[in-house]
Amino acid sequence: MIVRRSLLIALAITATLSGAAHAADDQSSLQPVLNAGDNVLKFDWPAVSVGTGEYEEGPTGVTVFRFDRRVHAAVDVRGGGPGTVNTDYLRIGYEVPEVDSVVFSGGSWYGLESTTAVATALKDDDIRDGIWTNLALSVGAIIYDFGDRRLNEIYPDKRLAQAAARAARTGMFPLGARGAGRMAKTGHIFDCGAYSGQGGAFKQIGDLKIAAFTVVNAVGVVTDREGRVAACYRDKDWPQGELKTAELFGAFPASSKQGAWRPMAQKLDAKRNTTVSLVITNQKLDRARLERLATQVHSSMGRALQPFATELDGDVLYAVSTAELEGPVDESPTPNVDLDIIASELMWDAVLASIPPQQQIKQPDPNVTFTTAQLRSFAGDYVFSPNVSVRVTVEGNKLVAQASGARPAFAIRKENTVELLPASKTEFVVPGRYPTTLSFTEKGKLVLNPGHWQQVGSRKK
Amino acid sequence: MIVRRSLLIALAITATLSGAAHAADDQSSLQPVLNAGDNVLKFDWPAVSVGTGEYEEGPTGVTVFRFDRRVHAAVDVRGGGPGTVNTDYLRIGYEVPEVDSVVFSGGSWYGLESTTAVATALKDDDIRDGIWTNLALSVGAIIYDFGDRRLNEIYPDKRLAQAAARAARTGMFPLGARGAGRMAKTGHIFDCGAYSGQGGAFKQIGDLKIAAFTVVNAVGVVTDREGRVAACYRDKDWPQGELKTAELFGAFPASSKQGAWRPMAQKLDAKRNTTVSLVITNQKLDRARLERLATQVHSSMGRALQPFATELDGDVLYAVSTAELEGPVDESPTPNVDLDIIASELMWDAVLASIPPQQQIKQPDPNVTFTTAQLRSFAGDYVFSPNVSVRVTVEGNKLVAQASGARPAFAIRKENTVELLPASKTEFVVPGRYPTTLSFTEKGKLVLNPGHWQQVGSRKK
Amino acid sequence: MIVRRSLLIALAITATLSGAAHAADDQSSLQPVLNAGDNVLKFDWPAVSVGTGEYEEGPTGVTVFRFDRRVHAAVDVRGGGPGTVNTDYLRIGYEVPEVDSVVFSGGSWYGLESTTAVATALKDDDIRDGIWTNLALSVGAIIYDFGDRRLNEIYPDKRLAQAAARAARTGMFPLGARGAGRMAKTGHIFDCGAYSGQGGAFKQIGDLKIAAFTVVNAVGVVTDREGRVAACYRDKDWPQGELKTAELFGAFPASSKQGAWRPMAQKLDAKRNTTVSLVITNQKLDRARLERLATQVHSSMGRALQPFATELDGDVLYAVSTAELEGPVDESPTPNVDLDIIASELMWDAVLASIPPQQQIKQPDPNVTFTTAQLRSFAGDYVFSPNVSVRVTVEGNKLVAQASGARPAFAIRKENTVELLPASKTEFVVPGRYPTTLSFTEKGKLVLNPGHWQQVGSRKK
Amino acid sequence: MIVRRSLLIALAITATLSGAAHAADDQSSLQPVLNAGDNVLKFDWPAVSVGTGEYEEGPTGVTVFRFDRRVHAAVDVRGGGPGTVNTDYLRIGYEVPEVDSVVFSGGSWYGLESTTAVATALKDDDIRDGIWTNLALSVGAIIYDFGDRRLNEIYPDKRLAQAAARAARTGMFPLGARGAGRMAKTGHIFDCGAYSGQGGAFKQIGDLKIAAFTVVNAVGVVTDREGRVAACYRDKDWPQGELKTAELFGAFPASSKQGAWRPMAQKLDAKRNTTVSLVITNQKLDRARLERLATQVHSSMGRALQPFATELDGDVLYAVSTAELEGPVDESPTPNVDLDIIASELMWDAVLASIPPQQQIKQPDPNVTFTTAQLRSFAGDYVFSPNVSVRVTVEGNKLVAQASGARPAFAIRKENTVELLPASKTEFVVPGRYPTTLSFTEKGKLVLNPGHWQQVGSRKK
């Protein structure tokens, strides 16, 4: 089957050799949204700047970490589907600070454009150049935020990443569904489908500073220190009340059963994830110590994200030392491990801080009724992207919808129509495990799940 | 300082170039104890045999896993102080089953002799030979079980490992302080000093078999699924009742403060550890899948052992496939990850199964009294090993002890005498956080902490 | 000193946070030159397409390898300064073909934009999308072609790489200073300063196909099978006639003495290099075999490039299997190694095929004379890039030049003026080990070293 | 087929679970031969001691490198069949010198016992102990010297390695077929079957010292700086006179055609090899620099050994710094690479120094005749090891031989008898590409290829 597809691809390649880009893939009209978000981690560390950029239309985004000096960095790769830039150089491990920025991005492998973009911005801004000792070194990693979680393939591109890099500011890190975490989700292994985001935590002990940042997009569930699942759209058959991660594992694999918008055809995509993380300290650490920090903190994340480091994730962690502080400040007999332990606990805090308020599941309102004529005013073909369209029609006195493009639109499938139940004068819902609200606007738009993660389709003329 | 010691070492080397081995290091009179222990995990898997060997005089031991065919194996190294044999060959990753045995051993790097010993036994027993396609391939790893936890440097040697390999049997795995886990401990990062051991767990789902084995010797604490510390000698100032690992981290670094027998001079040794693990499945897995299994299971162990993969550990995990079963048996859309998840939960079970009943702390009995003459009958120099001796003397009407060799003996230090309080007609104790019971035998022996981990000294004539 | 520069950089960063890109860094007006070059390796392999793109103004370029199906790939990194994208994913090593393209580029780390650009082009062209199983996977590596070898910092960007990807064609590979090898050089360790390029070789044995491609930019010298240096601007004190690499090593480090345009201030840059290579076979190879192919071929390159894999190089080799051919076709007892050996010999051929005709050193012509007025017509400030300008003035009746920007221009230094000796009515030379010809055009341009690697400056008004 | 063999093995395992070692595998009566050999590299470096141990009966041996202080070490693994101990610890890369010894050994994976043996000797000799900061750290690697190159499976064991370690002396390194190189061979890829050994080279430049040592056992041919094959038993159809490595590759794969004693049944064994190497400098190098030294020198060995790093080799190189000398002494702009280059050239010298005088091929002497009775006095079953016996019989008036054990004995095969042609009153030969001389002694021994690599069989009573 793979072979057969290869042949088709071969034909496609031939066909497009002289072709131009698909118009719909042109991102030049998208507006970068920079440093958005009111829920912000504040921290006192002039050496560390953070800039976020988002394209609302995705939504998707990028988070750029810049430093006011070159820093030392190490990397630990544990997931089964990583996307990285320049990690081979880090592994050489010279005892010279050389890294200018760490870039996390949505958009899967396409989003790696963000990492090189920040290096180029530094060159264009005359901070770095082509002299060997003054080259810009940007490293990065991406999360998978495509698939059935959104209805388009917009990715954080060079323009967005450079804007975020230039907007970087010290002392503030937006929490929740911001930056690279704009379209992050967690818990797909149990079909939780929870919305996620980016988290951060900071601690200062005397002169020692440690910060932990993470874009939480794990196939596993976020778990707090009491063992509770932090966010999950539950299956209707599950117990309500407190939900423990250990319970989900105890019932595994039954607890991973298929949810409303994960039919088999889409199964693998729904379960593609990746968590990317960054731990920074101002303590000077040699290469082995920095790698130990990366290793221990990354291993510790298996507590906050369960499961972790799976084949379905592409987990990558960077450890950075700004080397502002010489030597350990701790009187402990094991100062290195102490630092690693404190950083690991901070990382757990950071993971917990990543969770945004979840999208509410709107219920149908039996008191709302429409005339057939009114229903017909909603009918139409709504285009979300080249591959996703929804056809809304009236059957009898019901409004129904069906996906009419190459891919489904959440609970609106290609195989059959689904009834849309009225929830208000402009809103309909498809009841189920996950939010599926359709809001029709006066301007001929269909907004799926209005709110922070909404998807907007336009009625075809 | 390092340089200065190097000079001394240089002199030492010169001095001993023509010298013979220290007589006290001769292990030829030690008696191998094979497959000891009543607390046994039983499992139905003819392909997997386990043999354990122990030297009571250490105590220390070795655990040998043998297979009835050559198996596929991968390795994941995460700790900061690993000791391994032949892992480079595993990393080449040929799709041919070649591994004959996995060997875990006490004795730190000296214990690696156990791994090569099993290969040689296979050759000597005419199962393998020197033909390239029939070479014996044994891989292994060790734990650090020296330092201030025992008073000698006996290690599992070739003779012990070969005896254990030849005694290997299917279906039974001794739990607790047995085999390579004979002198394992955990929780030193919080000065818990808990006795530990080796654990195992087995699960069969249809034809699919998975087993998890581990020698738990972590600097971290064993943590159960409720977040509780599974074993720890607590500091007297700590709350009694349920002890949560999260509480210890919350109070860190205060919770890692120095215990009764960990003065600064010994600090680093007390906190040297290592957990070595093995996960086996009968499902055939290609190289990438087998490495994913190793990665995910090893990452998951950060839940059961907190902290994990520190600089003070040398954590190594081997993943083995016997390839008896073709393809995944699971109908799941993500069968590989399902296997990894189930194996990870099993490994948590295995860690929990490793904990032996702890050594009781004996209390002094105020009703027991001695005459000075009686006390004098206990006095003497008791030799535990070339480096450890205890001088018992009478001061006034008290019995006191002081370490008189190069190293201390638990709470009996070199710096000063410590009073021994009567607990019975032949036993004395040094009260404190950890067990320190001295039992004098009629044959002129001094037994420290009589029981499973006892140390025996002989009165110098 | 590093710290001090960091502070300056910090200021610079602050200053530019809200700034826009330097106008001079805008590459949007550069014209991609695609598939240029008459010296072409022809090969019969429909599965493999090659596209090259060049910016003459650099010069610099990119070489894109595309496949008509997804292919298996492995990577071997040996140099001390690699620049790579997505190698971590390759190392996971799934037995599924997933790689769409391999991209080699000039422009050092900035040139990595080329690798992600090709993936995005595949998405934009609707060959790939965001579905996990249909993501575009592009891997790549870069060479260092900045420093004192050219007078600007133009790099192969997204636009150039996408144009090259779309222009890819089967059966043809341009040899010499083309594509990513447009500004490659070799032999800097001996100050040879030879111009280099990209090479390729192809062999078919029955149904078995093997191709070797390489962008040769080594700090070492290209060496043929007779041990001769293939290209080198020799020091005037060196013997003429046949030059053996072994002789250069025999005289090392004297043979690495400083050349005419490598004063100490520039020393490290002149000696930054990197050779990136690709070996492709149509034989299906599992992961271990593919990695063995990469390892053996890369190791073998130490014969053709001496020295190789140094700290000053960033050598990376990708091995690709199109898996068109099942199993080894060879009756040899060691078919895998046979393949590796044949591929290694091909790679040596490929290296030798990379060398372009060298830039001739023009001699002054004592018969050419100028009046002072004529000389004055050449005078002026010629701007090559924001950092490089040359001031030409008349001293007495001599024309002299001095670098007036931040960086020197080959033999025209910042420290002092150098006399320009007439070579023709419009050309002057600076005699020395390396070519330094200045050609003044009627349009107020100064062309340095007219020809394939020329640098063009414009007279400031 | 593999599965079927596994079943047999399973039965074998069961059968021997309670069995004892094969008497013939008992090596306790073998006599260690220490520091043998008159052809010695002398070098002035008190920090470095070398001890060799050999068992003539193999022959096989071990080479132990000891240091008068703990040293820094890095490792580079490039071959397809490595055997190593404790390399994972080296890769952690602490900036603390910890390595006590590097051990090279014959005996394939069984020979790794030599590495742990040296660590244990240091403990037994009271130089090291069980305290974490004073553990002995020994690293090592092995070569494959079994297969059809010798008629037994004797390997360098603990006793031999400890004796060699204790006999280590400074300033002398035996060259040729000594120590671990006692039974080394090269060139099997071209069926050269040349005898090889261990080589060394030393250079001092001012205070800087560099030494290169290698046990050359490559499947490739040793190649000198003129491109000539240094040692090879040529095929009779090959040209005589100077033999260039490039010629052999040019004629490949024809040049790898089967030789006289490599029928297909033995093919893989004959072509199993491995070269293990050590480069030492007294300059202090941090981890990245030490790894660069290892990488560059190991890559450079592809010139002296062609092919190199194949699947049939297990090439491993250790790089060691004694850190006696702070900082680079070189005024070069690229001191690190200079060091690596010089070390690489030294390693080539070391490889060339490894070749011993080859075993002469004795010719039959037509003037020597025997009576049938005389011939009968030679007849008998000669046992070389449990697996190899040769039956000598008289057929008509000819002496013939046939292998009667499980394996052949060089040109004396199992399939048929081969005529033994008289060469002297006690010697017979089998003409062919390789030496096959049979010498009958008065004491009922049959010596195959009398001389340095002779194999001795005893007539069965």
How many domains in all of chain A?
2
Helix-strand category of chain A = alpha+beta
Q: What overall form of chain A do the CA principal axes indicate?
A: globular
Q: Main beta sheet of chain A: strand number and arrangement?
A: 11 strands, mixed
Low-pLDDT stretches of chain A are: 1-21, 259-268
Rg of chain A over CA atoms, rounded to whole Å, is 23 Å
Q: Find the count of extended strands of chain A (DSSP E, 2+ residues).
A: 25
Number of helices of chain A: 9
Which range best describes the helical content of chain A: under 10%, 10-25%, 25-40%, 40-55%, 55-70% or over 70%?
10-25%
In whole angstroms, the N-to-C terminal distance of chain A is 38 Å
Percent of residues of chain A in beta strands? 25-35%
How would you sum up this structure, described in words?
The structure is a homotetramer of 461-residue chains. Chain A has 461 residues and is α+β, with helices and mostly antiparallel strands. Chain A has 2 domains: 23-352, L-amino peptidase D-ALA esterase/amidase; 372-459. Chain A has 9 helices and 25 strands. In chain A, strands 1, 3, 4, 5, 6, 7, 8, 12, 13, 15 and 17 form an 11-stranded mixed β-sheet that branches. In chain A, strand 22 (427-429) and strand 23 (437-440) form a beta hairpin. The longest helix of chain A has 18 residues, at 287-304. Chain A starts with a helix and ends with a strand. Chains B and D meet through helix 1, strand 4, strand 5, helix 2 and helix 3 of B and helix 1, strand 4, strand 5, helix 2 and helix 3 of D. Chains A, B, C, D: Belongs to the peptidase S58 family. Chains A, B, C, D: This is P1 family peptidase.
